[in-house]
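User: Predict the structure for this protein chain, please.
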Amino acid sequence: MYHSVPLAPIVGKAAIREFVAGFDDRPPGRLVIHHQVATDHVVMNERTDYITLNGQPVVLPICGVFEIEDGRIKAWREYFDLGPARAAYGASP
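Assistant: Here is the predicted structure, written as structure tokens:
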């Protein structure tokens, strides 16, 4: 499961694969990790994503939470303000 918390969760490998494939035509972004903590079953990071949406540069401060099971990501949640992404498409934040 992948969940950008302002949006609906994406569940299942095929759905996640399709979501990620949607970024194929976008310019590469840059992620800067500011803090990261981990236990055997949870990784949390505070980061800033620098991406391009609709041809516009977007800066997204994000807190990511990864649940780990058997060495694999079981669930991935990201918490952020959707406003900067909406603004890139001309929508109100």
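DSSP finds two helices and five strands in the chain.
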